[in-house]
């Protein structure tokens, strides 16, 4: 058996490399998974740019699936060789935040997001799963590794954005940006019965995916103010809800401006790269009194959440894989990451396969 593995790490702010690391051994409540497929996330790009303070040499990645290589002594109910998916958020289920139902805030603000931030991520040939009994989820045979990898972050995050809109059937929602998370929110809004889904996006390939996933209207912000366009589309009424899926002060403000009184704004955008504070325009906020609500969140983790997403995949209700625009072997991870950074060649989501 090999003793070392290849890992894709942040060498220093602004630079990445592939290095050799020891294959980890599991603690009593951990598991080691041998990676078979992974997706690159834009938040990894933000991290490499310096948005999160992580030590040099930390392994990147949080969207990987694979097979169980080794189980800790206290982990029961699973077998070595079993195909599994692991969410980007891996809660302990013991702390106060977990017991109060906020598993993504495990141990403190955003504490459920352990990969890369608190420990090595899983863009490596092997990775550790903390609290394995609660965070390992078997992948049904009919579901591909590629499909399952979308459960790790994109689907659970996008769907959370819709859940935090508290949509009633037939309502109108605007989704700002149609990157992988925004597209997942579009899929979720369709599932939740939105009557009108307004997708804000300028890139033609992403506009096409948005329509494929259920968007009823496309607003191209490069053609003029998205707020004005949405207000025109809704005859001046505005939307019942809006989802910020970009992570930029202007889109957050636009979400407030397009929602009607009593509307809901759901933020799933990653604002860590932009140091500017978010503004609350007082007219759009009704001087603080127009019954609008803003809900934030980090994607829920745990095996029950993953099982529900896998059920939607297995039943054919959803298929996110049209987002996979490029496929690379792990030996080309650097090229894939650079393309994700520059958004070259119309890339939306790159799938990384492991030997």
TrEMBL record:
Keywords: Metal-binding, Zinc. It comes from the Bacteria. The keyword Metal-binding applies. Residues 11-348 form the Enoyl reductase (ER) domain. Signal peptide: none annotated. Its cofactor is Zn(2+). Belongs to the zinc-containing alcohol dehydrogenase family. This is NAD(P)-dependent alcohol dehydrogenase. The lineage of its organism: Bacteria, Bacillati, Actinomycetota, Actinomycetes, Pseudonocardiales.
């Amino acid at each position: 058996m090999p003793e070392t593995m290849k890992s894709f790490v942040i060498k220093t702010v602004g630079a990445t490399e592939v290095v050799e690391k020891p294959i980890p051994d599991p603690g009593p409540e951990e598991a080691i998974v041998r990676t078979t497929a992974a997706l690159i996330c834009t938040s990894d790009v933000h991290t490499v740019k310096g948005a999160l303070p992580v030590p040099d040499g930390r392994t990147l990645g949080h969207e990987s699936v694979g097979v169980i290589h080794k189980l800790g002594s206290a982990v029961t109910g699973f077998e070595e060789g079993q195909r599994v998916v692991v969410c980007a958020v891996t809660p302990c289920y013991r702390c106060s935040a977990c017991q109060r139902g906020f598993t993504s805030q495990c141990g403190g603000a955003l504490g459920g997001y352990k990969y890369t931030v608190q420990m090595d991520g899983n863009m490596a040939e092997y990775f550790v799963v903390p609290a394995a009994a609660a965070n390992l989820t078997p992948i049904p045979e009919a579901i591909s590794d590629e499909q399952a990898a979308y459960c790790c972050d994109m689907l659970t995050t996008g769907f959370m954005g819709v859940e935090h809109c508290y949509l009633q059937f037939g309502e109108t929602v605007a989704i700002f940006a149609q990157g992988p998370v925004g597209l997942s929110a579009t899929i979720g809004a369709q599932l939740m019965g939105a009557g009108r889904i307004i997708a804000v996006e300028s890139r033609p390939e992403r506009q096409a995916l948005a329509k494929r996933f259920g968007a009823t209207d496309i607003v191209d912000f490069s053609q003029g103010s998205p707020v004005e366009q949405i207000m025109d589309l809704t005859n001046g009424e505005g939307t019942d809800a809006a989802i910020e899926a970009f992570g930029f002060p202007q889109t957050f403000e636009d979400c407030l401006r397009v929602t009607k009184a009593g509307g809901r704004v759901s933020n799933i955008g990653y604002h860590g790269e932009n140091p500017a504070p978010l503004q609350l325009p007082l007219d759009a906020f009704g001087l603080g009194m127009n019954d609008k609500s803003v809900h934030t969140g980090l994607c829920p983790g745990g095996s029950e959440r993953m099982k529900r997403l896998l059920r939607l995949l297995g039943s054919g209700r959803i298929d996110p894989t049209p987002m996979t625009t490029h496929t690379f072997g792990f030996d080309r991870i650097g090229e894939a990451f650079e393309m994700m950074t520059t958004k070259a060649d119309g890339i939306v989501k790159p799938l990384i396969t492991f030997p």
